[in-house]
Amino acid sequence: MLADGCGSQNKNSTMIATFGYWLTNCAPSNVKIVELIFPVPGHSFMPADRVFGYIEKDVKNKEVILYPSEYIDIYERYGTVRKLGVDYLVKDWKSYSKDIMKPPGQYHFKFAECKRYYVTRVKNKPGRFLLRGEVNYKSDLGVAKSVLKPSVSSTSEFGIRDVPPFQNKVSALKLDDVKKLLSNHFGEDWISALGTNELLFYKNVLEDTNIGEPDYEEHCEYLPEVGIPTIGLLENVVVSEELDTNTDESFAMERDIEPRVYKPGKTVLKKKTKEAKPQCEIIYDASERLIIDKVYFFEKLKIISNHTPQFGCNLSNLNIIGETEIGLYAKLKLSCDMCKAEFIINTSDPHPTENLDINTAAVSGVTNAGIGLEQFQGLCTAMNLPIMTQQMFDKKHVVICDHWEKTAYHAMARAAERERQAAIEEGRVKDGKAVIDVIADACWSKRSYKNNYTALSGAAAIVGRKFGEVQFLGVKNKYCCICDRAENKGFEIPIRLKNL
């Protein structure tokens, strides 16, 4: 299961109790474990976000929404509407979780820091479950233990109460705001002056709602965004509501390898004056840092610095209106507020001729350092840099490995030629061929469990005695899943991974 990592919605002990009850009482017997995955907040795109974006856009386009049915009409355009109290009932899972489970602070792991949770059946105890938390997405280091209270022997001991519809607590301040809005719109005597059915919903809300502060288990996690104007101050401006933050294009781009398109936060329009037409300025999210190839970037800026001399356009007239992130570098979309021309500038050369591009160089350094993508993503997050996707990392890793293999081949060929020339100079020649002294050895790993558990993989190397350089390196595997699957399906693979 995948869900947003928001503590007040999904990432909490109430959700764990819900899945624990389902697994031990409702799930088929062949379902043994449930995995809950929570992506990094602020860096992940859920399919439901696109629907929320469409709904938000339609709601903002309406100046006044008076009746609940108007919201329902908007919701039905993008999904199926199920009404509380009519189509379904809500269970009080929060009280149930408090009855059967320990508080999160007493768990055997730090609940809030985990990214994955595993709810597992207990063998021979169908009414109990174990919980394991993992702080990483790939490494499994956690231990599964029970989080039920010592006095609870089964998840079915306590009943689950229904929550009556329209019984949620609403703060007194919110109710007061509703009264003020209705009074401003319909007058102070709106309850008596209007018909009995026209505003019945609001009358019932004000008369029957339980006044109080709703309590939540945890607060939502989010990444703050800092917006600043690219030109001028925020004086005498109004915010345009015409924003399209979730489109089919942005949804498709987010799920592809590259590029990922991030649109600006808000559009600011100057008030109309008699002297000039309103100009569009952009409040741009400048909180994220970027890696810039200074020579390449400034050369590109020089090219467009004086793009329209007749209008007097220069760098001070350029605004950043969009950004496309491609791994660690980005394509910045610039617009001139004088001539309205638009330009695309890369922050780093995507195809350098003398060295590696920034993404390939980063993957090479990560591999040399002995870390993986997850550690690299954590490093980038700490520095507020863009995060490389798994697809991008895998793509560049294949390129790096190919280069390493070719480099190793040429290095071994040069080492063998060096040993050969040294042998000829020393007169160690037999039948016209140089005689080279080498040292050879092979290795394969042994496991510390079972009887004589030898690994299915081994390696051998030949090293020149005189210069100590590798002449040959080979790896042999008794089994390779890629080769085995290809043989079973009748496919030919260009490289036999069993023998490298």
TrEMBL record:
Q: What InterPro entries does the database record attribute to this sequence?
A: Mutator_transp_dom
A Pfam family of this chain:
Mutator
Q: What is this protein called?
A: Mutator-like transposase domain-containing protein
Boundaries of each Mutator-like transposase domain copy? 296-491
